[in-house]
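FAQ

Q: What does a record look like?
A: Structure on top, sequence underneath. For example:
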């Protein structure tokens, strides 16, 4: 998420949000038709990459759109409650889809949901200005630091488990 927070600042929050949701939709659809367990694990990992890509721009859009005050607090609370509500509704819809049609149907439901969400976000999410010069930001981006922090967090997590 640290990497995607910076890329959202460089390339634009709306663009990254839309591309991240399209990524989730595409990976979910591909996962529904994967023939092997190894590929399914890889694509489920890519789904996690998609969620990491959409979280920073979603927060950035929220904080840039709403001025400080009660309305921003309410919007932040709504975003915060979206995770557990999405978990429950996603579990229920995936359970119904799996019961009616098999496990692959749950991934198809997720793909359709994120595709529709992408279409809605295209019209509803405001276009925010980018921070600074894009070429300079790409040149000055800390690629090595991003790679090392990802590896370090992965090794730290592996050591704890």
């Amino acid at each position: 998420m640290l990497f995607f927070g910076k890329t959202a600042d460089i390339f634009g929050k709306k663009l990254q949000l839309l591309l991240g949701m399209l990524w989730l939709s595409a990976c979910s659809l591909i996962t529904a038709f994967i023939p092997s367990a190894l590929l399914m694990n890889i694509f489920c990992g890519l789904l996690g990459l998609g969620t990491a890509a959409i979280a920073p721009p979603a927060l950035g859009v929220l904080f840039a759109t709403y001025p400080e005050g009660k309305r921003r607090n309410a919007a932040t609370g709504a975003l915060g409650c979206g995770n557990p509500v999405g978990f429950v509704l996603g579990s229920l819809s995936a359970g119904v889809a799996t019961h009616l049609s098999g496990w692959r149907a749950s991934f198809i439901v997720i793909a359709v949901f994120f595709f529709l969400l992408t279409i809605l976000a295209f019209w509803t999410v405001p276009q925010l200005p980018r921070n600074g010069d894009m070429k300079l930001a790409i040149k000055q981006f800390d690629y090595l630091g991003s790679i090392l922090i990802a590896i370090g967090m992965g090794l730290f997590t592996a050591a704890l488990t």
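Q: Is there anything notable about this one?
A: The CA atoms of residues 21 and 114 lie 6 Å apart.
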